[in-house]
Design goal:
The chain is of the alpha+beta class. The protein folds into two domains: 2-213, no CATH class; 214-248, no CATH class. Helices cover 24% and strands 29% of the residues. It is built from seven helices and nine strands. A hairpin with a 4-residue loop joins β7 and β8. The chain binds manganese (II) ion.
Length: 248
């Protein structure tokens, strides 16, 4: 089933509330695979790395800014696959929703596996070496999955990986936070604050350009989102019961 890879993505989100795109497996454009990194001011600021692979974005939440120092490893927590539509998303996920906070497009471009083998297989084996051609990410990087016994205690059984810069001409040995000064959107030039204050006005989804929103679906979704309404529905049976009593 082509859509099943995004089931988890869809299950975590209420599209009547969040401006994020609904999960649909996409098609590649051109020969090169895309990547995106989104800077995400959620409970903690992190960097979401997404690599296009077979119609979805394989995704990791990197806990700190990617480091150009080959001696500095960044923890990258594997998260659910994201739709390719997510690659243009910049905006604010409402508080209380999954991933609530502002999302900024921090880098975008293309990537290729360094080996000639199948990147799916390399990912399954927990060792993928990639070459980035982005605006801030360049050259060779490694994604290495930690073994279970190295994971330590975690509440959720998520796979932890390390994102490590390779020692090439783009590396900056000893300068772990060289990219920390890059704090604007690579697409719109906006800061997180500017996105947060204006996201309602400026965010345009791909779907609104290509097709009208499915009205019944989104209405149902927004009704689901209205928690007070849901509470009212829960107490509704009471008046009905009273009426019955009066009739008797
Ligand atoms: Mn995130």
């Amino acid at each position: 089933m082509p859509g099943s890879r995004l089931t988890l993505y869809n299950r975590k989100r209420d599209f009547g509330v969040t401006p994020e795109p609904p999960g649909r497996v996409g098609k590649s454009v051109g020969k090169k695979r895309r990547f995106v990194i989104q800077r995400h001011a959620a409970t903690r600021l992190h960097f979401d790395l997404r690599l296009e692979l077979d119609g979805v974005y394989k995704s990791w939440a990197v806990t700190k800014v990617p480091s150009l120092d080959p001696g500095t490893r960044r923890l990258a927590v594997e998260v659910e696959d994201h739709p390719l539509d997510y690659g243009t998303f910049e905006g604010t996920i409402p508080k209380g929703e999954y991933g609530g906070g502002t999302v900024q497009l921090w880098d975008q471009g293309t990537w290729r596996p360094q080996s000639t083998g199948d990147p799916e297989r390399d990912l399954a084996r927990g060792n993928l070496k990639v070459c980035f051609d982005g605006k801030r990410m360049h050259g060779g990087w490694a994604l290495i999955r930690l073994r279970d016994r190295e994971q330590g205690f975690r509440r959720t059984p998520r796979h932890n990986w390390l994102l490590i810069k390779e020692n090439d001409e783009y590396a900056k040995p000893g300068d772990a936070d060289a990219l920390a000064s890059e704090t604007t959107s690579v697409k719109t030039g906006r800061t997180l604050e500017e996105i947060a204050s204006r996201s309602r006005n400026v965010w345009h989804s791909n779907r609104s350009q290509t097709e009208p929103e499915s009205a019944p679906k989104s209405r149902a979704a927004s009704e689901r989102a209205k928690k007070p309404a849901r509470r009212k529905a829960l107490v509704k049976p009471k008046p009905a019961a009273k009426k019955k009593l009066k009739k008797r």
